[in-house]
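Trying the structure run again after the queue cleared.
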Amino acid sequence: MNETTFSVTQRQSGSQTSSATVAFDEDQVVVEGTIWGSDGCKTADLTDVTYDSSADELRISVGTKDKPDAGDMCTQAIMEINYQATVTFENGLPGTVSVSHDSGDGLNPVTTATP
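Done. Tokens:
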């Protein structure tokens, strides 16, 4: 693993959605997903990225946290938070990618993909 980037691409009121897709592109793994936040002050956070060389597996965990500028007043609406995570590899792509989400209810598997 050389480099990892993470960004929130959209936040909107919605439902308790937890999904992700994995794409493989030359030397990169790109994960686009949606995690839910319990209120309007939540945003997505890349909580862990681990490459296990013995299993040839990349594990990505995304959670939620309060936005830095959240303040004390938050809407009580469930938020759907879209994100993109990109992991660049120097010596070939991993054999398996696993994505998990934690919206405050513990880490739950979302998807597993292979190139």
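The mean pLDDT is 94. Worth checking whether this holds up in the mutant runs.
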